[in-house]
Structure formats: structure tokens, C-alpha cells
Design brief:
single chain, alpha/beta, D-Maltodextrin-Binding Protein, domain 2, 2 domains, five-stranded mixed β-sheet, 13 strands
């Protein structure tokens, strides 16, 4: 896997993820997932799927984790099928999992869970709980799996097993459309004013690598984005998927755009997003991994990704 060197240009890279970044969420101005995706953006979805199909599988060792991610049985042909799968997810992380205006649970993760159940020919029971209650409920046996954008890292691996990864959330910069182009590197952004949400991995990354930039910290994503819109900061660094969702929404009012490429560094941004499974449940792990492969092969993953993220993330 290629990782971004902060001293080099970051364009044209597909890179791994950030922490879930609970303070770096999109605002409430949600575009409807059913909106038609512009034909010109289909290429980005195809590229994403092509790259994903060639990524290192989630069995790869995580440094310091003491185990493998996504290790599965050699064959799923002889594994007993499940009649139903009990999924848990969150309810306040749009566009991944949230309650819509009719109080119906929806989002990218919710639709992915349904697609997985369909490929497994299993009934799907999806319930929402608060973020802090998800993994404890899984460990108690209240659910079979959790699909709520959990990052694969040493800490989570001590609690649960994971499926193969199904998406990444790299860090990216955005700027006002009217501002001049700049090289998005520590040298290129010397003396520039960059915003980030306080306490996030994005803030830590800026602090450690963009030493000669002026960093301004904000209490939440909404404050940071407003500061960018009024010109208080020149660029904003945050979670690429959340930023993509905001850029496509009504509150952004087409003010801003991505600048430079995506940033990765497992120490800061983790090693991917996957479905959490109870420790030792290799049977379900194998079944979900096979279902994920079929969702990719069928084109359903591309369809869902472009529905929820019409602006190129990577």
C-alpha cells in the first residue's frame, strides 16, 4: 500500500483512513441519497472499485496489534449458512448511518448491511444504538455484527474481530474556489492559515508535519467550515468523506473544493473501515467476507458509493 510522504506531492493517491472523527461530522443539510449521480463522476467510482479489488486483503498484519485482521477459513463452501444476521449501527453519523426526517434508519452503512444480507440469503435485522454502546453490545452477544464505520487499529482489534475492509477515509484539504492554486505540501503551505477540528487526528497530523503553517483549531466541523467560508482561514483539513458530503450539500453553497490529493498515515488515520464481529466467530467472518466480495462484483458497492458520495473522495 502506498503511503503519502508529507514532503512530496499527494496527487493521484488512494490512501487509507482517518479515525471516525466524531467531532468532524457533516452538518444537517443532507442531500437526498436518491439524487441521480452525474455521468461524469462514474469514472471515479469505477476507479475506486478497481483499486479496491487489488488492495491488500484485510488479513494483513497490523503493526503492534498482535494478530491478523479478517483471517478467514480457507473455504466457505462447507460453512453453515445463517438464517438471519443481527446488525447494529449508529444513528447520528450521516451519511453513513442516521435517522431521516421520518425517523427511519438509513445511510451507506445501512444499505451495505442489507446488500450483505441479500448476498447471504439471510434475513436482516438492523438496529441503532449510541456509538459507545455498539461494541459492548456485540461482546455481550446482543448482535452478530456491527457496521458503524469502526476503524481497524490495535485498540479495536483487542476487543473484536473484523471483516475485510470496505472503505477508507483519507484526510484532504479544501479551500475556497476563488483562491489561487497552491502546492499542497508542508513547503507549499508555509505561513498559510489552515483550520482543523481540535482533538482530531487531522489536527495532530497538521501539528506534526505542517510545522511552518499557522494552524487554527475549532470546536467542531461546523465552526471550521464557516471560518473557511468567511475567509478566516485559507484551507481546512479534515475527513475526506465528510468533507465530500458537505461540499455537495446546500450549506456549502458551492463555495469550496478539494485541493491536492489524499493523505494517509496509519499512525494517524488507522488502517481502514470494516465490519466488527465477535472475537472468534470465524464462520460469520468468512460468510460476510464472501458477501462483501459479491457485493463488489455485482456493482452494488459502486452504485451505493456514488449515490451517497457523488463528489470524488479520493
Amino acid at each position: 500500500m502506498t503511503h503519502t510522504d508529507p514532503k512530496c506531492s499527494t496527487s493521484d493517491l488512494l490512501l487509507p483512513p482517518t479515525d471516525r472523527g466524531r467531532t468532524d461530522l457533516p452538518d444537517s443539510s443532507l442531500p437526498q441519497p436518491g439524487l441521480a449521480v452525474r455521468a461524469g463522476l462514474v469514472w471515479s467510482g469505477l476507479l475506486l472499485i478497481a483499486l479496491w479489488l487489488n488492495m491488500v486483503p484485510a488479513q494483513a498484519q497490523i503493526k503492534g496489534a498482535g494478530g491478523r485482521v479478517g483471517a478467514v477459513a480457507e473455504s466457505t463452501d462447507s460453512i453453515q449458512k445463517r438464517v438471519s444476521i443481527r446488525f447494529l449501527t449508529g444513528k447520528d453519523y450521516p451519511p453513513f448511518n442516521y435517522l431521516d426526517e421520518d425517523n427511519i434508519l438509513t445511510g451507506f452503512n445501512v444499505d451495505m448491511a442489507r446488500a450483505i444480507c441479500l448476498e447471504m440469503s439471510a434475513a436482516c435485522d438492523i438496529k441503532a444504538r449510541s456509538w459507545n454502546a455498539l461494541l459492548p453490545a456485540l461482546k455481550r452477544g446482543d448482535a452478530d455484527a456491527v457496521i458503524a464505520s469502526h476503524v481497524i487499529n490495535a485498540q479495536t482489534l483487542r476487543q473484536v474481530d473484523f471483516s475485510n475492509r470496505y472503505y477508507y477515509t483519507p484526510g484532504r484539504f479544501i479551500a475556497l474556489r476563488k483562491t489561487g492554486k497552491r502546492t499542497i505540501t508542508p513547503v507549499g503551505l508555509e505561513a498559510r492559515v489552515i483550520g482543523a477540528v481540535k482533538g482530531t487526528t487531522h489536527a495532530a497530523y497538521l501539528r506534526d508535519f505542517f510545522l511552518d503553517s499557522r494552524i487554527m483549531y475549532f470546536a467542531n466541523a461546523q465552526e471550521a467550515r464557516q471560518a473557511l467560508k468567511i475567509g478566516k482561514i485559507e484551507l481546512l483539513f479534515g475527513d475526506a468523506i465528510s468533507l465530500s458530503f458537505w461540499l455537495n450539500g446546500t450549506t456549502a453553497n458551492s463555495c469550496c473544493e478539494f485541493r491536492g490529493g489524499a493523505f494517509s498515515e496509519p499512525k494517524y488515520f488507522g488502517d481502514g473501515i470494516a465490519i466488527a464481529i465477535a472475537k472468534g466467530d470465524k464462520q460469520l467472518q468468512a460468510l460476510i467476507n464472501r458477501a462483501l466480495s459479491r457485493v463488489r462484483a455485482s456493482g452494488r458497492y459502486e452504485e451505493l458509493f456514488l449515490r451517497y458520495f457523488p463528489i470524488q473522495v479520493y
